[in-house]
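Weekly modeling sync, notes
Attendees: S.R. (lead), two postdocs, one rotation student

Agenda item 3: backlog of single-chain predictions. S.R. asked that every request posted to the team notebook include the full sequence so nobody has to chase files. The rotation student volunteered to paste the first one in as an example of the format we agreed on. Action items at the bottom.

Example entry:
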Amino acid sequence: MEIDINQRKISIGAEYNIHLDGKGAFNARKELFTILSEINLFNKTQGKSRYQLNQKWAWFKTSYDLIRYDNNIFQFRTKNLWKLHYECQVAGDLYEIFGHRGRKHSIYRNDKQIAWWDKEAVSWFSGDNYRLIADNDSDIELLISFCLIMDNVKSQNKKGNTVTVDLGHIGFQAKEFNPNWRPKI
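Predicted structure, as returned to the notebook:
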């Protein structure tokens, strides 16, 4: 499946339009007037929040609590800051997010790759754009949440510019990108 995430920056926040295989499926909104970031992910058909992504205070590391619609809480944490390696335990599954050279990230569940995303190098006027490719049986709301967290981490201090250029990551990586991976249908 293919998921497109398109950010639209507003005066002091951001909104996201999210398409699943070309059809509008989700919206997300960064809440205004909060000290630490809070992002809500909504299903377009239901209109209520599916995930609430709450940033937690952490020195130089990424730390979020993901609160699912059923009030289960999952912790998204940095495993290795320099190698862009993150983890999130969801029930019995360990999700790992690996940043790669350039603008790509891969998502693994229990040591098996289930998805990856790439960010557009140049964005005009509105905000960042992501293309996420995933196995059809994946928890797409969770995968979208991971991408929204990483977008928030990287673009927190940027204002809405006319043109934004992202050269990507050039440092170390915990795992190399696998260009041969294909999603399960």
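Discussion: group reviewed the output briefly. The first strand starts at residue 2 and ends at 10.
Action items: rotation student to repeat for the remaining queue; S.R. to check formatting next week.
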